[in-house]
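Checklist before submission:
- one chain only
- standard amino acids only
- sequence pasted in full

Submission:
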Amino acid sequence: MKYTVLDYLEATSEKYADKTAFADVQESVNWKDFVKDAKAISSFLEKYFDPRTAVPVVTEKSVLTLKLFFAALYAGCFYSFVDATFPDERLLSMISTLKAKTLVVDRKFQKKIEGLGSDCKIIYTDDLLKEVKEANVPYNPARRNQIVDVDPVYANFTSGTTGMPKAVLVNHRNVVDFISCFAEVFDIQSSENLANQAPFDFDVSVKDIFTAVFTGAAVHLVPKAFFSFPTKLLDYLEEREITTIIWAVSAMCIISTLGGFKYKKPLTLKKIMFSGEVMPVKQLRIWKENVPDAKYINLYGPTEITCNCTYAEVPQSIGEDYVLPIGIPFPNERVFLLDENDALITEAEKTGELCVSGSCVAPGYYNNGERTAQAFVQNPQNASYFERIYRTGDLASYGKDGLLYYVSRKDTQIKHMGHRIELSEIEGAVEKICSITRACCIFSQNKISAFYTGQETDKKEIVTALKTSLPVYMIPSNFIFIEEFPLTKNGKVDKRALEAKVNG
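Returned file contents:
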């Protein structure tokens, strides 16, 4: 029986010992050596981290980073990837949420991390690897043998309505449940090559990493810089003989909008999966015209239910008026719609909140019981026994074809550039600027626009101020000064009126 992701890793390592597991532009490792290295590193992580605590990994995306992730698991801990390019305020919030006492850091980020003023102990990766090599400590399986399937695997941060990011905790049972289904549904074989696009703090990457662990497929880590140069990206896909991509919509659109297919067509691709936001049909048609023999899959689901809960295979031929469904549930996932009174919606074309039940549902938000209790709740349709569900906050409806279709967000959370973002977090950051008294953000035409009152301020000044607290992808494209906000009859900001200003 396999209960944990390490059970699957070890089975794959035995079966495909000499086959490539992971590769970046500088390093490649087979399954046997990957496990050996992860175990060796874990022996040293045990000295600094208690079981079932977070191992924050502050590195760039690489084969070494993946070794650190699995070393954390072998040490009985869980990993959390920390992006050193984030503003100091956000980094400190993440470290605080994880209750981290120690950080594992790439030497190139020494100045940044030491400049945070955190009292965490810092272990630099070069020092760690040197110590591992010189000491050659035998691996002790004691901690690994104590892991059970409800122990955590990773914590990924998402945007938070309170202005602070939330850490979604995902355990072994969640990953085993979802990835087993995912690999089987899409028939991913050990012979396949996957091209990883997503950052390691974005749960799209979870499908790359663990699908490989479960099947023996190889994962090739695409450098972030390649997504600014479609020719390099397409060359990479051809050179690595990539068969499957599981990418954010925005990454796919880079190739189709910048005319990449005029240079080269990635004809080794057989499975093309996308998620994170709504795929523009115009761009999807361009892909299908240039890579016609591949299967195209639309994936839907928030981080809180372990990657995805529904999927839809795109028909071979689609017209300009095609409406992309989010499809049907994955096996062992109950996906349903509730109306405002928590009544079950079964009829077509009636909108409700999409809710999910099953082993895929994550334990909740790390060190945030209040937010966990709000989103992870008892199924109101079940009064007979405990059935925990996740309320996604997404509105959806059934089409006349019986498939699910995404409608919009229930609240102010949006999906932009592959990231889930709370507009209220951006508003809070804008309002911290001394010349601004109030802010309201609108997401329309795939752009974030910030309206504000107070003193009219130069856009460069606002952007400079926001870069101290927000990632670049959360900074609005437009800043619009207004004397006062339009109000509804209930005294709330009239967001429809503001959206009309953006679109007008």
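Reviewer check: The chain has 16 helices and 27 strands.
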